[in-house]
């Protein structure tokens, strides 16, 4: 059975591990590093969060670890539960199950997380981006008469970017767009500050377009351990102000089924775990 790995924030409970009975000796920062090292060997991690135990419990910490892959989370749970790992006493590890039937809207990954996920599955040289168009649409007006008391309309820096993510080995191209607008106060902005802010807005537009391009791709991990890529065109409504800029942007077809690899396993859920609220299981 194939597993789907989207370029989205992993909020599913079967991709989430709760780790408890962590020692109170190390700092939270040291535990974060130890947990990341121990669990990242099973698959790419989205996040590792360490929290102190409640005041009514014994001193120590617990952690919430999120994987992009449910199979990786299952392998980690089986391998690490009741093991000492990096401390003298064993830790307990459980997968989560939701006890509320709530539909969560998928949240897009930011551009740096998208690149991290792409590097993991496709390799650092397995993909690239090509900027098709990068244009400034800023609404900056000069005041002709400095003595005029007529106020200027609020000004802003605005950049539009269109690019495509290219996966040569998968014969796949995915277009993306980004439009970023930031208000600016002409009185407070000096020349250097203006240039820095302009560069920042330009960079944000590129990052937004890159994230948008990755959202249309779906990593399919096959039962054999190889991977395929599926291209899913977005049906999002585009801002009409940049419709003219998008007129020449071509949707490039994608051939979805190409190869790579990881193992497959069935997974089980042992206790209830919400996204932000956790119910600890009975301790054995």
How does this model look, in words?
Helix content is 21%, strand content 28%. With 284 residues, it is α+β, with helices and mostly antiparallel strands. Strand 3 and strand 4 form a beta hairpin. It folds into 2 domains: 10-95, RRM (RNA recognition motif) domain (Alpha-Beta Plaits, 2-Layer Sandwich); 111-145 and 152-231, no CATH class. It contains 4 helices and 11 strands; from the N terminus they run E-E-H-E-E-H-E-H-E-E-E-H-E-E-E. It has a 5-stranded mixed β-sheet with strand order 3-4-2-5-11, covered by helices on one side. Strands 1-9-10 form a 3-stranded antiparallel β-sheet. It is found in: Cytoplasm; Nucleus, Nucleolus.
Structural class estimated from helices and strands: alpha+beta
Mean pLDDT, to the nearest integer, reads 78
Number of helices: 4
Number of strands: 11
Shape: globular
Order of helices and strands: EEHEEHEHEEEHEEE
Radius of gyration in whole Å, from Cα? 24 Å
Distance between the termini: 34 Å
% residues in beta strands: 25-35%
As for the number of domains, it is 2
GO molecular function: DNA binding; RNA binding
Pfam families: DSRM_RDM1, RRM_1
Protein name: RAD52 motif-containing protein 1
Domain RRM: 15-98
